[in-house]
Write a structure and sequence with these properties.
Blueprint lengths: L1 H24 L5 H6 L13 H32 L7 H13 L23
Helix pairs in contact: 1-3
Function: Involved in protein export. Participates in an early event of protein translocation.
Main location: membrane
Membrane topology: Multi-pass membrane protein
């Protein structure tokens, strides 16, 4: 299980980095307007409209991979912690805190009533 979580995490990180790069490479919608007024830098490797289609579709694919990896990691994390039952982190921490601090574990709570130990009656 740990191998699959590591693999999905690596795929998620790579898709996030590729998606960041793809978004930074794309030009905004206002770049074409500036090119029409004399700037010759609007041409690209993929053509005038080909770059938008290729880069936007690649970004969509990377975003889909990223979200699928996120859902897979959430599912695997939840199923791994569900083996102990329906306990949450707060349920596990409360008994440990109560044992460490004594009877007054929660401030403002009613003090715990501790019955004194009764010695056994002497037999006659």
């Amino acid at each position: 299980m740990q191998f699959w979580m590591n693999l999905v995490l690596v795929v998620q990180l790579l898709s996030a980095l590729v998606m960041i790069g793809l978004v930074l490479v794309q030009h905004g919608k206002g770049a074409d307007m500036g090119a029409s007024f004399g700037s010759g830098a609007s041409g690209s490797l993929f053509g005038a409209t080909g770059s938008a289609n290729f880069l936007s579709r690649s970004t969509a694919v990377c975003a889909t991979v990223f979200f699928v990896c996120t859902l897979a990691l959430a599912y695997m994390s939840n199923s791994r912690s569900g083996q102990t039952g329906n306990e949450t982190i707060l349920d596990k921490a409360a008994p440990a805190a109560a044992a460490a601090s004594g009877a007054a574990a929660i401030p403002g709570a009613a003090p715990a009533v501790i019955a004194p130990a009764v010695a056994p009656a002497a037999s006659k």
